Amino acid sequence: MSEPAPVDLLDVIAFVRVVETGSIANAAVRLGVAKSIVSRRVSRLESVLGAQLLTRTPKGMTLTDIGREYHARAGAGL
Q1: pLDDT > 70: what percent of the chain?
Q2: pTM, whole model, 2 decimals?
Q3: How confident is the prediction for the chain on average, in pLDDT?
Q4: Which of 11, 53, 62, 74 qualifies as a cystine partner to 67, CB 3.0-4.6 A?
Q5: Which three-class secondary structure string do you get for 25-62?
Q6: What integer is the mean pLDDT of 35-44?
Q7: Strand (E) or helix (H) holding 70
């Protein structure tokens, strides 16, 4: 049986910044990277965790219950 993929700290930081700033675009500015990089990092984190952290809509995004819980734990550690 293969080991689960490790969580990349930069992916966690990107997710926390998205939540703190309210959008991928604002998080990208704060991190000094392209929006596509932030989006990719959050998607990869969700894939590694096997859970959807954000619900994306044309008008923005909201945290899922799992995302809220993960943010509380991850944000406290950063």
Answers
A1: 96
A2: 0.91
A3: 93
A4: 53
A5: HHHHHHHCCCHHHHHHHHHHHHHHHCCCCEEEECCEEE
A6: 97
A7: helix 65-77
